[in-house]
Amino acid sequence: MNLKSFHRRSLDEREAFWAEQAALIDWHTPFERVLDDSRLPFTRWFVGGQTNLCHNAIDRHLATQADKPALIFVSSETGEERVFSFAELHREVQRMAAIMGSLGVGRGDRVLIYLPMIPEAVFAMYACARIGAIHSVVFGGFASHSLATRIDDAQPRLIVSADAGSRGGKVVPYKPLLDEALGLGSHQPAAVLMVDRGLAAFSRVAGRDLDYAEQRQRHFDAQVPVTWLESNEISYTLYTSGTTGKPKGVQRDVGGYAVALAASMKHIFCGRPGETYFSSSDIGWVVGHSYIVYGPLLAGMATILYEGTPLRPDPGILWELVARYQVSVMFSAPTAIRVLKKQDPAWLTRHDTRSLRALFLAGEPLDEPTARWIAEGLGRPIIDNYWQTETGWPILTVAHGIEPTPTRFGSPGMPMYGFDVRLLHEQTGEEVGNNEKGVVAIVPPLPPGCLQTVWRDDERFVKTYFSSIPGRQVYSTFDWGIRDDDGYYFILGRTDDVINVAGHRLGTREIEESLSSHAAVAECAVVGVADTLKGQVAMAFAVLKDPALVAQPADRLRLEGELMATVDRQLGAVARPSRVHFVTVLPKTRSGKVLRRSIQALCEGRDPGDLTTIEDPSALEQVRAAVSPA
Ligand code: ATP
Ligand code: MG
Questions:
Q1: Residue 293 covered by a domain
Q2: What is the rounded average pLDDT of the residues 489-506?
Q3: What value does the mean pLDDT take over residues 467-495?
Q4: Which helix (H) or strand (E) holds 46?
Q5: Bridge partner list, 359
Q6: CA-wise closest residue to 299 among 46, 83, 86
Q7: Range of 592's domain?
């Protein structure tokens, strides 16, 4: 079948299409209705059907591959490496589920998971899924303030945490941050379950803090049957990255999510049982939920859980893991590739990566120079895919499981089945034509796997996502896109990342792409800054592959001139940045997304706004120093 007719059918015969996909998972009780769209934009999938994510990801495979690897834990931080078979994982999850049960955690209760990338995090997520508790994973890199707001929002009965994580060889204690967060917020959990890795000493609150190893012994032989859940019960809540402001609490169902992931593993990622999947993301992000924890195991694959950076012990570590575990499908982010781009490309070929059928990249625009660099250096197919925390799986990509489709540099591909993607005029709400820029929107019902609502805030769900395009109740992604004559989409940046120079509307992404094409540039960010004459001007911040290139003021001027000339040549003088500042690091969220809005605020002398999700505050200081008059 070809991709376009597959997509067409998913919309024209929506219920028949998804009923077929639903056969990819086990149902304890069949659903009565495929879709209930009587209360749009709220959508209910597989109504009345009973299933369970843990059963489908683990128990279901015991008959055929109990002794095959399910979870491969590798820490380049501590040197640990442990492989859990499906049978072992099944036992660990039941132990964790029994501990939770003994602490009074049941169906619908929240469990907040604040853990580094260790196996216990996966056990805890699956234990929740098994007993119908709702997990809320908070990225381990967040400090007390971000953690406190999430604890207060989720109101967990239980928090699962650890003494410490480790990043770049440095121990990062978690427990003091957790205690501080519990002091800052108002909600108190009934219990805190502590995984003690022996990395950092910590204090315990008597009567509240429990030791995981001790509890695990107590429940060592536990058998905890799965709780069958109605498809529309809640599996988890998770916050967006907070690139554009206050993070939104995305709430997801059980059955729709399981079906969506199983279908994407088949059609998009083409993973086969017995193979190994490696996503270098983090369990604190949606990619970690969908494609470290749930997706690979739903497909009967082993999944690699990697604690570490792409650079240690050396910049070949990701490819070394591919070779060691014969990884067939890999998922990473452009930001990780741009980190590697500052290293010797010889690292890309030091290990045998021929087992890899494709490397999927998502999270940020994959600029053409970076895409070429990795595609040529690695010699493996690179597949860009575009989606959001809200959607749970790709909106735009190619689906080689349906039809081998050539990819185009700079384009994440085409709309995936189930997503009725439209490009709409921002003011009129009308559809724009090919090669015209529009807001990427999705006509409801959203397919299975997408958010049900914003946690405990239906009004915000409708208001935020379905009310921004005049006259139409459609889901807005808040990204600009354009479609070429062959149906390939290109993402041009966020709707608030457009600048207006003397009446010309320019996407900051195009200017960034142009600057990135210069051989000296590793990555860059462009923002629009208010200008009394032109309305706005573009201001650029570039990180060089080799900072020594601009050691002297004269070098700086020369390179700035070269970069401006590059933009002049490629886009025209109107797009030329008024300045190109050189910095050693860009302000990013902890998920690696450039905080353009905060950079812009600093350039205009305003407050940089909510910075709870920022990775490295010193990056903003560099921006501040660069733009403040000497
Ligand atoms: P917030 O919504 O809180 O501001 P966020 O949008 O960064 O945070 P995520 O859901 O993690 O939170 O990111 C989704 C966004 O990332 C998309 O809307 C898009 O802007 C960007 N994105 C993801 N993948 C791609 C891609 N392949 N190409 C271009 N942009 C992408
Ligand atoms: Mg977003």
A1: no
A2: 85
A3: 94
A4: strand 42-47
A5: 330, 382
A6: 86
A7: 502-627
What is the reported pTM? 0.94
Contacts of 39 (CB under 8 A, 6+ apart): none
Distance CA 546, CA 563 (A): 15
Maximal C-alpha separation, the chain:
74
- Confidence bin at 193 (pLDDT 50/70/90): very high
In tens, the pLDDT along 416-428 reads 999 999 999 989 9
- CATH number of the structural domain spanning residue 556: 3.30.300.30
Which CATH number fits the domain that encloses residue 181? 3.40.50.980
Which residue's structure tokens are 């290109």? 490
Strand bridging mode 382-384 / 358-361: parallel
The answer as to whether 210 is a domain residue is yes
d(CA 384, CA 609): 30
Of 389, 396, 508, the one to substitute when testing ligand 1's pocket (max ligand atoms within 8 A of C-beta) is 389
CA of 391 to the centre of ligand 2 (A): 10
Ligand 1 mean position, distance from CA 363 (Å) = 5
- Name the closest-CA residue to atom 26, ligand 1: 386
Label the pairing between strands 276-279 and 327-332: parallel
Both tokens assigned to 583 = 């910095």
**Is the pLDDT confidence value at 245 over 80?**
no
Q: How far apart are the first and last CA of the chain?
A: 63
Please indicate, yes or no, if residue 247 is contained in any of the structural domains: no
Tokens of 290: 């969908």
Q: Which atom of ligand 1 is nearest to the CA of 396?
A: 27
Mean per-residue pLDDT over the chain, rounded: 95
Angle at 560 between CA 555 and CA 562, to 5 degrees: 95
Is residue 66 one of the residues assigned to a domain? no
Q: Does the beta carbon of 397 lie inside 6 Å of ligand 1?
A: no
% pLDDT > 70, the chain? 100
67 CA distance to ligand 1 middle (Å): 38
CA distance 385 to 397: 5
Decide the pairing of beta strands 134-137 and 81-85: unpaired
Give the closest ligand to the alpha carbon of residue 491: 1
| Band (439; pLDDT cuts 50, 70, 90) | very high
Question: Which residue, 207, 227, 247, sits at the end of a domain?
Answer: 227
**DSSP-based three-state secondary structure for 199:** coil
User: Alpha-carbon distance 165 to 202, whole Å?
Assistant: 13
Helix/strand/coil for 582 = strand
Provide the residue type at 29 as one letter: T
Number of domains in the chain: 2
Atom in ligand 1 nearest the alpha carbon of residue 286: 11
Q: Is 617 exposed, middle or buried (0-12, 13-18, 19+ CB in 10 A)?
A: exposed
Cα of 387 from ligand 1 centre, angstroms: 7
What is each CA distance from 491 to 155, 173, 363, 465, 482, in whole angstroms?
A: 37, 38, 12, 18, 7
Atom of ligand 1 nearest to the CA of 385: 27
Q: Which amino acid is at 36?
A: D
The closest ligand to the CA of 244 turns out to be: 1
Taking the C-alpha atoms of residue 316 and residue 39, their distance in angstroms, rounded to an integer, is 51
Triad 294, 313, 168: Cα angle to 5°: 70
Q: Give the residue carrying structure tokens 């709400």.
A: 429
How much distance in Å is there from the Cα of 242 to the middle of ligand 1? 9
- Total number of residues shown for the chain: 630
Write down which residue in 172, 198, 227 finishes a domain.
Answer: 227
Proximal ligand: closest to the CA of 286: 1
607 by Cβ neighbours in 10 Å (0-12 / 13-18 / 19+) ranks as exposed
